[in-house]
Amino acid sequence: MTTLPPQTEIGFSDFVAQSWDDMLSACTRCGKCVEVCPVVPFAPGMALADPVQVVTGVLDFMRDSVPLPETSATWIRQCNGCGDCIPACPEGVNPRKMLMMSCSKVAEVHNPTPHVFRKMARAIRIMVSMQLVPADVARLLRPPQARDVDVVFYTGCNPIRTPHVLFNVMTVLDHLDIEYEVMGGPSACCGIVYSKWEGDLKKGGRVAEQTLHRFGDFKPQKVLSWCPSCQIHLGETIKGYREVKFDFDHITQFLLEREDDLIARFNTPVNKRVVVHTHHGLPEVGQAVLRLLRAIPGLTIVEEAEEPGYMCGASGSDRSPELKAHVRKDTITLCKRDDVDALVSLFHGCHLQLSKEGQTHGFQVVNFTELLVAALGEQPCPDTVEPFRQLNDWRAMVLEAGPMLKANGINMDPEELAAVLPEVFTSAEFRGGLCSFAPQ
Ligand code: SF4
Ligand code: SF4
């Protein structure tokens, strides 16, 4: 699928360096990207910062390795990927890409999340093995044999933690008679974890290249992602690293392209009044979901609850906790209203977080994929994290999950597992936690 002959392919470090050369020569340091950035008024120590100095600190760090001023470091750390800065740049630089790429060098200088890929891979394995029988685990984690298909459905890594949303997407693709194959899990990472979180461009580039090659082995017309981090990493941050012969897009855009076909198959009313959770960072995803949900018979959308960043979680809105808390309280207030039956989650990370909020504040959370499947007259794949969440006791969860874990070949000491589950369930590796999974 790579069309450039190997001798002309540049390495990933050179690709990143070239991207920086382009951004550094185009950027006039006008500071407009900082001025419009919604995290700035909420981020500690940034409200009064000079926008020009903030962006200059980032650029000097990248060009000359000048130590990062505190406000510039905070800006990088708190960037939630909302993308508001992109249209604000008069020079056509993509400041979101600039900050995503800055994270690599920050992690290279001082990595606050060491061994995150290794920890994540193990945490995902445990979490999915608690929920699914081996054949279903294999469907999500075992690399499929290459064959010619129209579509590769690319799950990414962390969405495997909430497998029901992925199986629901597959049900929708089945209804649309799409010839597809599923790829995902840590063995098909997009490379963002190594390059952005560990600052290891060599591994990040190798992983991305390997995954792109494997997509190409299926000769697909389209590779459709679920995970918004993969979408931004492969589709924006490192776009152009390798030439490919397929379109890369988010699954929701594909469903929107086929909305007439999909809507014609909606045959079952879903009598609910819902609030729909969306994100600012990939607005087209939220808009597609709203449009498809509006076509479901019986379903009433009471309101949209847009939150910052491109998703919930460590890569998205959690990076700017003050801004997130400010908006989240409004989402919760909305969902507690008597005329609302449920909150509809968007991505996997959103679903995990919001379900916990629902448990705490007494409202139901469903993923939009469940509603699509229900409208197609099928039983949606149930949220298999939910029964564990309801137990609300880590030891009880280990006891409950024991047989399934054993069937999936995981034989951890029950006490050790109970101690580590709170971190596994909250992706603590992306906060520098889950240290017991690091190499000793
Ligand atoms: S992507 Fe959003 S949070 Fe990040 S710098 Fe741009 S405006 Fe700020
Ligand atoms: S808005 Fe564009 S040109 Fe101005 S500082 Fe930001 S990236 Fe540079």
Automatic annotation (TrEMBL):
Keywords: 4Fe-4S, Iron, Iron-sulfur, Metal-binding, Oxidoreductase
Domain of life: Bacteria
Molecular function GO labels: CoB--CoM heterodisulfide reductase activity
Annotated InterPro entries: 4Fe4S_Fe-S-bd, 4Fe4S_Fe_S_CS, Cys_rich_dom, HdrC_iron-sulfur_subunit, Helical_ferredxn
Record domain 4Fe-4S ferredoxin-type: where: 16-45, 67-99
Pfam families attached to this UniProt entry: CCG, Fer4_8
Protein name, entry field: Heterodisulfide reductase subunit D
Species name: Ottowia thiooxydans
